[in-house]
Design a protein that fits this description.
Rossmann fold; alpha/beta; elongated; 8 helices
Length: 226
């Protein structure tokens, strides 16, 4: 059965193009252009996921999110040009499931939708996608992207990135990475460090001064994404 998405955005050009893309991808899409209409559609249509812009006329996205959370636990992805850490933390404090900054690629947003829907599956089936910040992993095709740009990873690099993404910003110890990436078949910390170094060359603009894949001395490694 097709998943039903509710798209709440007053940018009609973007909304129509995005809705068309999502329908071609296999979703049912309901489009509305203001917060009040979004609340009515959420109540009447029972969508599987809401795509919610922040800058809406009248009732803004924050207010809509608050009202939605009073009514339902439907997954919510915020769509916004506001990219400050304060805004993102505010969104997550309201129960937002993901936060996508405009401009974004439709393919990346679709992957994020799949990832959020996968986490919301009641039967515990493994999601096809994983996402953290601007990193999106396609677990079926073993493909990775950062900010919409494809990452040319080897299989081991992909497994390492997957293990770190699954931690969602928490520290992954070397022992955990050895277990998850190499199946516990090696106890060589030098091998972990080597592949961390190789992965940094794929995801960092300056691998010698990493901003995203950080070493936590005495503990392990973690991803930090804006």
């Amino acid at each position: 059965m097709k998943k039903k998405l509710l798209l709440v955005d007053d940018d009609l050009t973007l909304s129509h193009l995005l809705a068309q893309y999502l329908r071609e991808t296999g979703f049912l899409v309901i489009e509305v252009d203001n917060g009040q209409a979004g609340l009515r559609a959420a109540y009447n249509e029972k969508p599987d996921l809401v795509l919610l812009d922040i800058m809406l006329p009248g009732m803004d996205g924050w207010d809509v999110c608050n009202r939605l959370r009073e009514l339902t636990d439907v997954p919510i992805i915020m769509l916004t040009a506001k990219a400050t850490e304060e805004d993102k933390l505010h969104g997550f404090s309201l129960g937002v499931d993901d936060y996508v900054t405009k401009p974004f690629s439709f393919a990346e947003l679709t992957a994020r939708i799949q990832a959020v829907l996968g986490r919301a599956e009641p039967d515990g089936r493994e999601a096809d996608y994983l996402a953290f910040g601007e990193i999106v992993l396609d677990l079926k095709k073993y493909e990775a992207s950062l900010a919409g740009q494809s990452l040319p990873l080897t299989p081991t690099e992909f497994r390492l990135l997957e293990a770190l993404v699954r931690k969602q910003g928490k520290v992954a110890s070397e022992a955990e990475l050895i277990r998850d990436v190499w199946g516990g078949q090696t106890g060589d910390s030098a091998l972990v460090r080597r592949y961390v170094s190789l992965l940094r060359k794929k995801i960092e603009s300056e691998p010698s001064s990493p901003r995203h894949l950080l070493t936590v001395r005495g503990f392990g490694y973690r991803l930090v994404l804006d």
